Amino acid sequence: MTKFLALLKVSIQSMLLSSTNSRGRSRKKAATGTGAIIVIAGLGLYLSGFYSYMLMQVLAPSHMEVLVFIFMGMVALAGGLLFTTFAVKGVVFGGKDNDLLLSMPVPSTLLMASRVTAIYLENLLFSAFVLLPAGVVCTMMTQNGVGHSLQFWVRLAIAALVLPLLDTALSVLLGALMAFLAAKVSKGALGQNIVTGLFLVVVFYFSFNVNKMIGALAANAAGIKDSLNWAAPLLWMGEGIMGDWGLLLAFAACCVISFALVVFGLGRVYRQAVTAFAARAAQSNYKLSTQSASSQKKALFRKEAQRFFGTPMYFWNAGLGLILLLAAGVASLILRDKLLVYLGMAGENIPLLPMAAAVICFCLCTCPIAAPSVSLEGKYLWILREAPMSDHTLLWVKVGFQLLLTLPCTVIAGLCLSIALGFQLWQGTALLIATLLFAVGHAMFGMLMGLTFPKLDAVNETVVIKQSLATTLAMFVPMAVLAAAGGLYWLGSQISGWAAFAFSILLLVLLTAVCAAILSKRGPTMLRAL
Hints:
Largest sheet: none
Shape: flat
Order of helices and strands: HHHHHHHHHHHHHHHHHHHHHH
Helix content: over 70%
Radius of gyration: 25 Å
Number of helices: 22
Mean pLDDT: 80
Low-confidence stretches: 17-26, 282-286
Oligomer: single chain
């Protein structure tokens, strides 16, 4: 048991925490882990609170509260898969410390169990913040006394504990499949990007059609429940939470057995699988061919592009906002009439210009491309440091790569929104100036965060991209700046429209100039200190 707990601690650190090369190591590690926990819990709480309330409004009159728990179970299951499938590929099958841990005198099944248990704990966090708030909403809005007994909360707690077991089993199987494909197929990254893209298309489809689905629930809740036989375990969970102990035990048995089969089944071949994946990844087939000449900067840009588009975790976590920017711009043109009708219903005094700028800048905040770029070099950073180029050039190439991606998307989204909303020429120009300034400042600030909070010894890219302090700050500090710019716009609007615009632009200009000055003066020194 002592060995298992020690291995579990290491696995949890790989999932939620991080290591850093800077001073104050324990404090930064704790801050990173806490930040990751807050993000996961906050997302689960938001999804559960918002959608549970919407569902209960239409289901409570027909006494079909069971569907709330069925649908929230689906949310917990899908969210857990999205959070942990790529982490399974990196932490369980692709961890840099696998060679060290497999050489220790512990059974491979025990090591597999510790890794999978860490995945389970992350799924448990999300599941608890999805199912338990749904129980609170049902208790407050029900018309048949759901949630007014202790047994209800006991059954709900059991469901929240065992559902992540099923989620973890599915995540491990999908992660193993992705690791296998990445090892066997030379275009493994392309396949993973396609799979993730299809998954997000399904998520967005359900998000945009949720109102139609809720309307259908109000008209035929019983019929929809009968059509969910394909999700039998979740039906058992819903009925079990509502009072059927037999179905709840059947659901718990299904989850526990699935988890045990995955752990012991893959545990028996864990050593062979990890060795095979690592050997395939290390294999290189060299072919003599003509090489095209290229400048230093072009070579660096190509290297950054290969890492960004060739690492699905990096691409989808740092590039999804760019996809949303383009999608929002195109959608605003296609659905222009509906958009104008909706805005007309909301009122004539809506500040469309700052709202459009806020949408674009928020999407940019979710694209921290430069922030993890130095840490992703890992132990090979010295190769770039020894290259015949200045540290200043290396840093600005990394900043420039983010700008190469964000600036065109920002311009396209700004032009589309300006046309769709019928902005005058000066309004469209103001929108582009504000958003382009924000994009430039965001890239340089992200680079500064990457140099201030490096993570060159992370066990995998998942820790750097999803859970590092640099990435977290590169996302949320610009959001705070965006909120401050909105406050200044409101203050200026009390004087005149030009004052509102001028105050916000001055803030963005000031912060961009400060970041540029610090990065130019201190950036090379900070890079040499790594």
